[in-house]
């Protein structure tokens, strides 16, 4: 199986400080992978490197197929309507790739809000728009930066259900970058733990959930139920 | 009464010029966060060039179109120099546009000299509700109206217009979805150049143009644009028209010498009031 994301020995430095140090990470086609880490571990830097927004000091980033980003903080076009936000998500596809129908099928709640200003929506609704906007580019891999941040548990559960559907029905690969390690390990098959710019641990989520180093630092010391 | 109508219609015509300059400023600022101080120069260049084309025997319409296109080209050139280099801050770009505006003086004086120039517009006198005024003012209004309607259609209905609005709304998100924000900035500069050019081309038959006419245009255009926080085209349009009318009223009933002061007072008042609420993000 070919990898859609293949990061090898990635090193990024900001003005001398090393943000990422020899990071190896891969995401297979149709695979759901989590990247867990505390604030300042280098997650945002990795997101930028994957999106091609910065130049690494060393190593390589290979993305096969189209990568679409669901950014941290959701980054709405706040003055524009939900419909316009979605259509702009299809910008790379040109005029004919901007049919918003499939996204409204996936998120019927958004269809009702299509004429509303995106800036006036709730956090959960905005996250749906952000995911829908990313899907509009018909990506092979979705890079989700903080799915659950600032959202109510019920809203997160609903989004997770949608992601599982997408993954199952379309074979969409997902790299989920998430502070909520419990959620990330539940949702994804494999996970990486990023600490101070290095991959500290990686492996199958089920194994990581029992790994004392992970449970102590990221799961509040409790071993997740098998 | 007929005096008043005359002043108002004349003022609307003059204000339409300010509004066009202002909308150019807004178009550029929204997308790039750069206050383009070369905006008045587009009007002067376009007007001078139109005069030359008319002298060369080109018919009306074609010559004016040539002027507007030159304005667009000048806008694009200013854009390339001001924001072409990645990572240039809006503050730096502002200074660059200021410098280019002064450079335009040299070019204008070199080519067209330093004497006021004009060319004929719509001849004759029109009568509106008993007021007699130059018929050309009606042409200015007849052109400006559809231009603003077209602009709002462009920004609200077309994909390119929405992409420009997207850059204005959230630059980072625009990059994420694959919009080339620098290219959009250059398009905005081109559009701003065309709007500035149109202002010069339309108003020159009723107001002579000299190389330094840009000062009055930029002061009034900026005053109108700043009313809408430099980001709201419709407010800029209203502001421009209001300024034009206020100035002709002041000139008509008071003294003609105070026209620019009207704009300055308005601009200062608005800026002071606004800075007390939300600061205008020139260097943000």
Count up the helices of chain A. 9
Which structural class fits the helix and strand makeup of chain B?
Answer: mainly alpha
Overall pLDDT of chain A: 90
Shape of chain B: globular
The greatest inter-chain interface is formed by: A-B, 20 and 16 residues
**Which structural class is indicated by helix and strand composition of chain A?**
alpha/beta
Number of strands of chain B: 2
Uncertain stretches of 5 or more adjacent residues of chain A: none
- The CATH topology of chain B turns out to be ABC transporter involved in vitamin B12 uptake, BtuC
What is the level 1 CATH name of the largest domain in chain A? Answer: Alpha Beta
Overall tally of domains of chain B: 1
Rg over alpha carbons of chain B: 18 Å
Structurally, how many domains make up the residues of chain A? Answer: 2
Tell me the name of the CATH class of chain B. Mainly Alpha
What is the arithmetic mean of pLDDT of chain B?
Answer: 90
Predict the CATH topology of the largest domain in chain A. Answer: Rossmann fold
Tell me the major beta sheet of chain A. Answer: 6 strands, mixed
Strand order of the largest sheet of chain A: 5-6-7-3-8-9
Query: Oligomeric status of the shown chains?
Result: heterodimer
Please state the overall shape of chain A, judged from the principal axes of the Cα atoms: globular
CATH architecture of the largest domain in chain A: 3-Layer(aba) Sandwich
Keywords (chain A): Amino-acid transport, ATP-binding, Nucleotide-binding, Transport
Protein name (chain A): Amino acid/amide ABC transporter ATP-binding protein 2 (HAAT family)
Pfam family, one (chain A): ABC_tran
Domain ABC transporter (chain A): 5-221
Helix/strand layout:
The complex is a heterodimer of chains A (226) and B (284).
Chain A: E1 3-14, E2 17-28, E3 32-37, H1 43-50, E4 58-63, E5 67-70, H2 82-89, H3 101-106, H4 108-112, H5 123-135, E6 141-145, H6 153-170, E7 173-178, H7 181-187, E8 190-195, E9 198-204, H8 205-208, H9 212-218
Parallel strand pairs in A: 3-7, 3-8, 5-6, 6-7
Antiparallel strand pairs in A: 1-2, 1-4, 8-9
Chain B: H1 2-32, H2 39-55, H3 62-83, H4 90-112, E1 125-128, E2 131-134, H5 136-157, H6 159-169, H7 171-176, H8 181-203, H9 214-227, H10 233-253, H11 259-277
Antiparallel strand pairs in B: 1-2
